[in-house]
Amino acid sequence: MKLKQFLSTSLLFLTLNANIYANDKALDEATYTLVNGTGTTRTTNIFTSTDASQGILIDGINVKVSVTAWSDTGSNVTWYADNNWQEGDEDETIQQASMEGYTNCSVSNGSCISGTEAYGYGITNKDSSWYYKSRKGKWVGSEEAHSVDNYNEEGLRDFDMFLLSFDQEVVLTGATFSANYNDGGETNDVTVAGLSSNSLFSSGNEFTWSNVNDTVIAGALGHFDISETKNAENYYESSFTKNLTAAKYWLVGAYNTIFDQSASGSINDVGFKLSSLSIGVEQQTTPPPTQVSEPGALALMSLGLGLVLYRRKRRV
């Protein structure tokens, strides 16, 4: 082996070894509870400010956040006629929606026992009604009409999503839900997407989920399953098992095929009410200055030995 080639190989080995240690990261986590139980059928303690004035304490760091709701209900007005909700042909433009807090049952009417209620937030978009007729030909109760869903009504599918704007980059690692509707065992129930910017939502211009998809950060997108059974606290759960990239702006909503290039054919309607999110802050860790990895030490020894052998060969 020539000296030049030997040096290049050894230095490359050292560089790779150093990068492995330099990129080690730790994640400090906390639970962001969107809704606190009040014993009523509706709650109002959701953080809806636009200046991210509310905070989540994560390992001594106060992470501020604001939350808004959005759905692609189109730019046309919806009206009720002939026992059906009617609207124009355009159904892709995203409009801001309303966030509604509910329990999954009511103590007052005897549907649950005090202390067993689960609280979560749904979304009421422009196409929602207190009762509406599904494509299956039956009337659906209001509890599903205000869920975070991707229901296909009258041939027009709307994707409901929450936008969470943080004041620093965070990672979403999981969520809990007070309700989980129409779960037929699908693996894709909730879509989570980290965005490079939230400017589309504040621009005042018309935009679609396809436009938003262009701002998704590489490695910050996933589609996850929601459990079909409740945990001990009476909530459904979802673990975002993929190591998502950190972002300041996150979408969390019903499975959205616009963000899934592998989606094909028909999908099942899914809906839920969001109760909490597991939030993580990445902490960069570096090894102590005196720490030398064994591969690095071996490479240095090999480099020194190579120089000695080379010099001896030159003298012969």
UniProtKB/TrEMBL annotation:
Keyword Signal attributed: yes
Superkingdom of origin organism: Bacteria
InterPro entries in UniProt: Ice-binding_C, Xrt_dep_XDP1
Signal peptide positions (record): 1-22
The keyword Repeat is annotated on this UniProt entry: no
Record key words, sorted: Signal
NCBIfam families membership: PEP_CTERM (TIGR02595), Xrt_dep_XDP1 (NF041927)
Protein name: PEP-CTERM sorting domain-containing protein
